[in-house]
Amino acid sequence: xxxxxxxxxxxxxxxxxxxxxxxxxxxxxxxxxxxxxxxxxxxxxxxxxxxxxxxxxxxxxxxxxxxxxxxxxxxxxxxxxxxxxxxxxxxxxxxxxxxxxxxxxxxxxxxxxxxxxxxxxxxxxxxxxxxxxxxxxxxxxxxxxxxxxxxxxxxxxxxxxxxxxxxxxxxxxxxxxxxxxxxxxxxxxxxxxxxxxxxxxxxxxxxxxxxxxxxxxxxxxxxxxxxxxxxxxxxxxxxxxxxxxxxxxxxxxxxxxxxxxxxxxxxxxxxxxxxxxxxxxxxxxxxxxxxxxxxxxxxxxxxxxxxxxxxxxxxxxxxxxxxxxxxxxxxxxxxxxxxxxxxxxxxxxxxxxxxxxxxxxxxxxxxxxxxxxxxxxxxxxxxxxxxxxxxxxxxxxxxxxxxxxxxxxxxxxxxxxxxxxxxxxxxxxxxxxxxxxxxxxxxxxxxxxxxxxxxxxxxxxxxxxxxxxxxxxxxxxxxxxxxxxxxxxxxxxxx
Length: 495
Prior knowledge:
Layout: H1 2-72, H2 79-120, H3 142-161, E1 166-168, H4 178-205, H5 212-229, E2 235-237, H6 239-309, H7 313-344, E3 350-356, H8 358-361, E4 365-371, H9 376-386, E5 393-400, H10 403-413, E6 428-430, H11 433-443, H12 457-480, H13 487-494
Antiparallel strand pairs: 1-2, 3-4, 3-5, 4-6
Helix pairs in contact: 3-6, 4-5, 5-6, 6-7, 10-11
């Protein structure tokens, strides 16, 4: 029994011992794991310590840099103080800029004034008006202008005689003498009038078609400058005198233009008279030659017929052939005579002309007309001198015994191509030259030469002149833009 208890105790002890062994093993495993974790923790602690030391070092550097920046930017740490100081500087800069802008504006005014006065005395084309002068008077002949010029001169003389050309409102005394004062003023007036009249005479003598407006400005400028010189003595030229001088300028300029126009008109009339006389002589000569030829052939024919009356049979054949030939020649001479008479009497014989005016009507617009003049060029020149800005170019001139019929047929062919379908006398058509040539050759069995390219000399020269004027205007605008109207514009351009 005791043995059994002891065995049981032993078994319990062994069981307890095994449990203890198991616990011991677990403790050893736990100890090993703890040692591993401790080793890992020690390693992490070392890394953390290194990082901590590095961070401490960086923090120290950052604190040093911060201290330097704080020291460097200490003046602007106080934002309110810095902002107030900057606003003060901005206001000062604005004041200085305004002063500079005012100074610039004054300088620009002076520059423009000097540039304007300089241009008054330069013989350059008036770009603003293209040199065109607006007439102030409407006289028909140059004699009327000449009469008005004499009237203007008498008005100026009367103005000076009445002591109204130069005026002094101050009663001066010289050495206490009013008479000497009046004498001084009189001499001063004469001096101013001499200066102004001399300047006006010089300007008027040089006036041309392209500087009339500028010459007027010169006279006005001289009037202003001379009056400034008289301010110390309170003497000034009157506006009446200035008005008469401006009128004198306009009259002189228009008189020269009218005189030139009259000379040109007289030259045109003389040329027309010469052409008409030449045409008349040509008609008379052609008629005389035709009559002489007719008489000569008639005499020869009469003689041949007389010879036939007394000739034998062997001579009749030869004489008959001679008579036949003479009859043909006589008939031709009679036809020439009739043609010359017909031309002299301005019958249906005439010329068809095909002309163009690119500068006035553009491309592919042609005038197809008729003239019975001996020289058809007279009619073409007359058309070019009438109411178009450029002369016509001739593409073809065609002689026809029935010019009205040929003209009508051509017009009918192009009836739907007329520019003016209301007035049939306006003989302008929008067609090509090839079409006109085809229609003419259809109704006219002869070799006709057409000039395809229009010379248009004046028109092409005008286009060249316009391009030159544009270039001059651009150059002038660039010169004006050299100094802008304000500093704001200048700064804006730079930006």
